[in-house]
Structure formats: C-alpha cells, structure tokens
Amino acid sequence: MAIAGRPVVWLFDLDNTLHDASHAAFGLLDEAMNDYIAQALRVDAAQADFLRLDYWRRYGATLLGLERHHGIRAAHFLEHTHRLPGLEQRLRGNARDRAALRALPGRKFVLTNAPASYAKRVLTALDLADCFEGIVSIEGMRLFGHLRPKPDARMFRVVLARLKLRPAQCVLVEDTLAHQRAARAVGLRTVWMQRYVWRNAHGPEVGARLRRKPAYVYARIRSLSTLATHFLSACAHVRYADP
Question: What is the C-alpha radius of gyration for the chain, rounded to an integer number of angstroms?
C-alpha cells in the first residue's frame, strides 16, 4: 500500500482509537486529576473539577494549563495521575483488531497525548505492543521548553522530521476531529475512528454529526478491520493536493 509511490506510514492515536478508553480509563483519570489538582493547588473538589475541564477545553490538555498557570511539573503530574490501579482488568481488547493491525502493510507508530508508561501498559495488556515500531508520547512533544501535544501543528511537523517522514506519506487514525484538522493542514491524510464515539458520551466529539465526513477527513471507520479497504476506497475517489 502506497501514497504517491511511497509506502504508507500509519500514526495511530491510542485512547478511543485502539481501545475503549471511555470505559477503561477516562473516569479513573478524571478522578485522579481532580485529586491531584485539589491537593497541589489547595482548592476544593468543585474548583478542581472546574480547572481540569477549563484547561482541557482551552489548551487541549489539562496539563498545559496547570504548567502554564501554576508551575506544575509535567513529569510529577503524569506519574501521579496515570497510576490507575486495576487498569488492565478494565481494558477491552478485540482479536479482530489485533489481526487487522498485524496484517496492515506499512510502518506503524502510536501518537498519543498520554504518557509513555500508560501507553505501554495499554498496548501490552491488549497484546498490541508488537504491532508498532514505536510510541510518540506526550513526553516527546516538548518544543523550545513548552509542551505542544495534539492538535499543535508544530508538533506534527517536528515529530515527522524526527522520524524522517514526509507528511504526504502518513495517515493519522484518530477519534478527535480537532487533531485530524490540524494534521490535515500539515499534509497528513486522516481517518476518523468512530467506534467509541458512537458508544460513549465523553470527549470533544460529543454531539458531532457522525454521519457527516468533514472535508479534512479522508475516510471514516468503525473497525480497524475495515481500515485498509476504506482507505483504499477513499484513495480511489478523493484527490488532495499536498499543502
């Protein structure tokens, strides 16, 4: 499988793309972040919950607001909020997804705003770790001293440069539209994973028109087993000029 004569390189989001994070992790993470904020900033539970959501909406990640406005150290925050005891028992795997990933031609990486330790736990528990050449986690998204996680376009460019990849040969498989919009602006193809968006009322895609494919989305899927066929079909019907 190739784009413009070059082998495809797949960049997979982790949460709500490779597994049902709304079921397994998001509730636990919200509680852990609220507890951390309440203790670190000495605020009550209601204020902690407000700050978590406010910074997430404003910056795309709660951590960015805490780092910018309160001097919270990223490593300390990530270590304390992602311990998540019992995570592995809550994860939902899918044998068809594993088979589809292993059969999918091309290089494959995980690109996630989560910390590396969490990503490795999830992939190992789901028996997906050997499907990927590497993990680009939030620790690798710091530019000029500042965290720049998805959907920051600068981060996409820097990550691709580090991996020695051209944007036009890469496909981002992702559940969050804002991340896809930014990736497309940089020149990546984008695939919208909708499986968990349909199931769960959590995250920025709540209320999204799931039956409508935005112009910056190359294809939309509800199963990794259909990824290759849907992407090839989109290639046959849609042509994008590289930015």
Answer: 18
